[in-house]
Prior knowledge:
alpha/beta, Rossmann fold, 5-stranded parallel beta sheet, 7-stranded mixed beta sheet, disordered N terminus
Amino acid sequence: xxxxxxxxxxxxxxxxxxxxxxxxxxxxxxxxxxxxxxxxxxxxxxxxxxxxxxxxxxxxxxxxxxxxxxxxxxxxxxxxxxxxxxxxxxxxxxxxxxxxxxxxxxxxxxxxxxxxxxxxxxxxxxxxxxxxxxxxxxxxxxxxxxxxxxxxxxxxxxxxxxxxxxxxxxxxxxxxxxxxxxxxxxxxxxxxxxxxxxxxxxxxxxxxxxxxxxxxxxxxxxxxxxxxxxxxxxxxxxxxxxxxxxxxxxxxxxxxxxxxxxxxxxxxxxxxxxxxxxxxxxxxxxxxxxxxxxxxxxxxxxxxxxxxxxxxxxxxxxxxxxxxxxxxx
Length: 329
């Protein structure tokens, strides 16, 4: 190639390639923060994050053009959340979307002025995150589950599956700020059904095996797993231990059933994050978070893992199968 042709080719290439500045989001578009205790590499978390992004797209936002998203992931370590929340505050984020109670608490301690939209939070009122559902006040709004009927429903389902159900183990993480009200709700429901509840606290992954050893000693007939990011991160291990112990397992989140647990009954997390986008949209258009009522879950999922049922030697009642939204085979 002669010198003239080389220079012509180089100039054409420079004209065809967009300047580096054009590949970055415009500086004046709003930035939305996303704070999660989990890892983006986890398939379930990436689905939830995508549900939020899809919700924003449905409301006309285009990432990189009319909105930017800054995400921070604690990789299963709750102790990292305060520092990650502080990072988002320093970036002058317009609104922060939080996944779970611990992330919401970390964000609320990091800022009293930036709007926070919480998702997958248990009982935001009794945990002190907001003053009321109808008038949250302050800078926090979003969705929160205050549902004693959820624990009652899970116990009722177990009662249909397990003949003469008398003892149920409850697995939860006390570091989760919604842990205490969930345990109270479960105890109330167990009392009504005449079931003895064995509450086991798991603060870190190393305690999971010990908890199942205690479940075996307590001779539980089944196990309920409370919503918690750390427990979800180790859902495959939990499902394996439950199956090995011949324990029907039910959880609020469908990920546990997909990982090999017997059943899941609870709110649709994907739907919760899509609804979080509605709050983000309203706030970016001028609404104050304290004036936006907190919503309860409206869409619930009942999932049955038939492969696990077969492994446990269980015949699922036909009436229960008819009520299932999804069955894993």
